[in-house]
Design a protein that fits this description.
The chain has helices spanning 2-33, 37-52, 59-77, 87-111, 115-136, 141-160, 165-186, 194-206, 212-231, 237-256, 264-273, 284-309, 319-342, 347-368. It is mostly helical and 372 residues long.
Length: 372
């Protein structure tokens, strides 16, 4: 009896010591992240969205809250890459990053509250979880962020089909779970050598359809073109939603955070030794190229539909509208990346700024009643 009691006491003492160390590390990480502009941008954007989105129980409110919560979490997490760290240490980092948008939502909910705040917190937590799992599987920061944003966007799309908030939340959760399993099965590419990481990511990014997510985006936009413009014309607006969602998930992370810190030193050596301005990940030429490439990949099906449909392409939510929306989004993203680059800020800051003005667009549409 006595040895068993001593063993139990020792186990409890070990757990308490582990918890104390985790809390101490969490405080250190939070203080460190307080120096990141991206953390504060994510907090303010989440708080503004929580205040602006209506607190009523409505399916469209749920969808918009999912988008805002997912974008705020992606902005806060940024290029965090702790794939090789111990699981407990890595978990503390993700919790610390996710805390920024959650605190922002809570601060906004004090004034407003309602279903939007709860949904935003759930979306932020799930987006961070998706990023964490993809990263632990070896995905580069841009790919992990793309997976997380794509899951949030798909969950928001599923919610819009629902009749009320309860069904919307259930539909969003079910679609998120199913797609999360699929995404985790296909994501994650490890580059053990940093120089191989720098070169391989450059070659892969230059190839059209060079990643699983890109190929999935191409397939879904083609299917959306056929369905939305020819089979079910009354759903034409959905093509624009699919293309814009994929652009945010693919082009924005690729143009801002790229491979993150992986192989950064070797990429710097390549930049200093190569002639001209090579399009290595993390450089402005690469970022602008990624934006243009993804816009072309996602926009050409609408362009083909516009040619086939002729004058009808200019109708409300017709193919030309989708092309114009993608072109405007690509231009705004390129300008944001260029401005941040000129200010010598980090890719995390660039991602956070773009996420912030995307959240602002969602809030404006919410107030104006767009996409309802």
């Amino acid at each position: 009896m006595i040895p068993a009691a001593r063993e139990s006491a020792a186990s409890a003492k070990g757990l308490l010591e582990s918890a104390r160390r985790s809390v101490a590390l969490l405080l250190i990480v939070v203080r460190s992240d307080a120096r990141r502009p991206a953390s504060w941008i994510a907090l303010v954007a989440a708080a503004a969205a929580a205040v602006t989105l209506p607190g009523i129980a409505d399916a469209m409110v749920v969808a918009r809250a999912i988008v805002c919560g997912g974008l705020a979490a992606a902005a806060a997490v940024g290029s965090l890459a702790v794939a090789d760290a111990a699981l407990g240490t890595a978990a503390v980092w993700w919790v610390a990053r996710c805390a920024w948008p959650v605190v922002g939502v809570v601060a906004g909910a004090v004034a407003v509250g309602g279903v939007a705040a709860v949904t935003m917190i759930a979306a932020a937590l799930l987006t961070t979880l998706a990023h964490a799992v993809a990263t632990r599987r070896g995905a580069a920061p841009a790919e992990a962020t793309g997976v997380a944003i794509a899951l949030a966007a798909t969950a928001a799309g599923a919610a819009t089909w629902a009749a009320d908030a309860g069904i919307a939340a259930a539909s969003a959760g079910a679609s998120w779970l199913v797609l999360a399993i699929v995404a985790m099965a296909v994501s994650g590419v490890r580059y053990p050598d940093p120089l191989a990481s720098a070169v391989s990511l450059t070659v892969r990014d230059r190839a059209v359809g060079g990643s699983t997510l890109t190929r999935l985006a191409m397939a879904t936009t083609l299917a959306a073109m056929v369905i939305c413009y020819f089979l079910v014309a009354e759903r034409a607006a959905w093509y624009a939603a699919v293309a814009v969602g994929w652009f945010i998930a693919l082009a924005v992370p690729a143009a801002t955070i790229g491979p993150g810190a992986a192989g950064a030193a070797n990429r710097g050596l390549l930049l200093r030794s190569a002639a001209g301005a090579p399009r290595l990940p993390g450089t402005l030429p690469h970022a602008l190229g990624a934006i243009a490439t993804h816009a072309a990949i996602l926009g050409w099906p609408a362009g083909v539909a516009a040619v086939v449909r002729g004058p009808a392409a200019a109708e409300p939510w017709g193919p030309l509208v989708a092309v114009l929306m993608l072109a405007t989004l690509a231009a705004a993203t390129a300008v944001s990346v260029w401005m941040v680059s000129k200010c010598r800020a980090t890719g995390d800051t660039s991602l956070a700024l773009i996420a912030a003005w995307l959240i602002a667009v969602v809030m404006i549409l919410s107030r104006a009643g767009g996409f309802s």
